[in-house]
Amino acid sequence: MALLTAARGSGAASAASEFPPIAEYAFLSDCERTALVAADGSVEWMCLPRADSPSVFGRLLDRSAGFFRFGPPHTHVPTQRRYLPGTLVLETTWYTTTGWMFVRDALVMGPWAGDARLPDHRRPPNDFTAHGMLVRTATCIEGQVDIGLDCMPLFDYGQTSGLWSYAGDDYGLATCRADGQPELTLRSNMRLGLGGARAIARTTLRPGDVVYAALDWGHPDLAVGTVDEAQRELAGTIGAWRDWIKPAHMPDHPWRPYLERSALTLKGLSYAPSGAIMAASTTSLPEAPGGERNWDYRFTWIRDSAFMLSALFELGFDWEAFQYFEFMMDAVAGGPLQIMYGIDAERDLTERTLDHLSGYAGSRPVRVGNGAYNQRQHDVWGMAMEAVQLHFGRSSEIGPVAWKMVIALVENALKVWQDPDRGIWEIRGDPLHFTVSKVMCWVAADRGATLAAGRADDKLAAKWRLAADKIHADVCANGVDDRGVFVQHYGAQALDASALLIPIMGFLPPDDDRVRATVLAIADELTTDGLVLRYRADKTDDGLTGTEGTFTICSFWLVSALAIIGETDRATALCAKLLSLASPLQLYAEEIEAASGRHLGNFPQAFTHLALIDAVLRVIASGRTGP
Q: What's the pLDDT tens digit per position in 286-295?
């Protein structure tokens, strides 16, 4: 397995640290918190009690920030890793010099058995809810195999050590406590040895032997105390995921597994108590190793809303779409519209740095919070209105409260569309007149006019249609270069991948010469080895230094745009290439380094999986089965 090497701290360090490639991590979720598991069996990222809380296992961002390994002590490269089909239950098969075993890992879920309303839930629980427990089992299938457990939680992003102590009459139950931190309980049929912040165990398995380790936090009524109970928890979790995916509308096509995995990943990135869906499970995985482009993505972006609802509706997940839309309405009702919110609709996402952490592969700073939350980004109005139209186009008529919100969204778009902003990519340089920001203001007015006409509000429909026409004319006059190609911002010559939204959002028809010229220009001039950049960093003042990889969402947008303009062969070939670059477990980070195929940025990335769903469905609809 390839490894990245980085020094701790900003200068030369006394010891090198090894970081697994981002694509090698497996993603676990119970729809309240998430975990990333390295190929060697170490949980290297998990935050408690929520996915956006401080980490308990933070080795992902510093090799000294806590981990939980469960695997053979002297073997670190498994024979195979896979998700059990239709689930987020990880199975890792190990071969050692003496035998074979497999390990299964899951953040477990089970049927909701309660009746009382849950105080921390904005939405009613689904049929299956989180049990607040990580369950790990190891089963020997041939020969004999040593299995080791090594659990060292370090709370608050690696800043606070806990203290393990026995909590029962034998060696199979221990608790880890630290002031002001979640209390952890570890149960196992292995004999646990305790030493300060560390719990360890080791035993030898023979065919048919099974050991388990169950780590829980604050749910003693759901505790696992035997192998049978651990296996029942895993079986219940397998059933929960398969019951959820079962009704999905999936085409019978060779690319169906990518759609299934993307749907499961999006569900895993959801926060069930509110209906929110996080942009990613992580913070500060770098867009360029060693660089400063490291951001916290454990929030929900309004810009994702339209793509999220479209994907959920297309795949038949109407209930999840309803929950996400209701979360969006809760967030919007809390005050002026922001570009992003916390996963329980928090508005203050103040950014700070964690200077004690080395960062992944030496990439500093590590950030928590996101300073872009109060930026002016005018695309948000159009994305929100596209989501509104998608929702009410499939559900019911708009009530008075929702209609008041629609009016506010459209009128705000009309108020600001002529002003500069930070753009869809949240640049930290000076505000500019970004072309696609204005296109999305047109989307707000256009969708608003359509909805008003549907309510027989002719006066408002005419007003908004006139405004939409004015924005449309302005963009076509000022956002196009002398080649007839839409540019990044008014007065520029630079390309921007966000212009692919012009055909996707229906700003112009597919046969318009400017649309075709723009899509082909991006395909030919804004790509590296066929993969799409957001923009050329040397031609855009984004307020940052360094470079970045190709943005995978933009590459999938190009697939969709090529399919829209009838370039089916190119769309199919690019889609096949992108699918071939998925991680071994069919997950995607935010970016891909074109030359190497290395995944970069936060992981797994919801926006990428959303774009994949749209692109794959468009290519399948074109009738092509492969390149």
A: 998 888 889 9
Side chain identity at residue 3, one-letter code: L
Tokens in use for 263? 């749907």
Angle between the 304-314 and 256-268 helix axes, to the nearest 10 degrees?
130
Pull the structure tokens for residue 86: 């239709």
Please write the tens of the pLDDT for every residue from 88-104. 999 999 999 999 999 99
Residue 260 · residue 245 · CB < 8 Å: yes
Measuring CA to CA, how many Å separate 356 from each of 62, 124, 132, 216, 297? 9, 39, 29, 27, 20
* Alpha helices in 144-255, H assignment, sequence order: 155-158, 227-245
Print burial letters for 435-446: b (CB count within 10 Å at least 16), e (below 16): bbbbbbbbbbbb
Count of positions (residues) in the chain? 627
DSSP string, 55-80: EEE-TTT-TTS-EEEEE-TT--S-SE
| Tokens of residue 125, six digits | 């629980």
Nearest to 55 by CA among 191, 178, 157: 157
- Check if the beta carbon of residue 535 is closer than 8 Å to that of residue 558: no
Find residue 608's DSSP bridge partners: none
Which residue type sits at 142?
E
Give the C-alpha distances (Å, rounded to integers) separating 342 from 347, 358, 426, 580. Answer: 6, 25, 17, 33
Q: The pTM is what?
A: 0.94
pLDDT digits (tens, 9 = 90+) for 165-200: 999 899 999 999 999 999 999 999 999 999 999 999
Over the stretch 126-179, which tens digit does the pLDDT of each residue have? Answer: 788 999 999 999 999 999 999 999 999 999 999 999 999 999 899 999 999 999
What φ, ψ does residue 272 adopt, rounded to 5°?
Answer: -55, -40
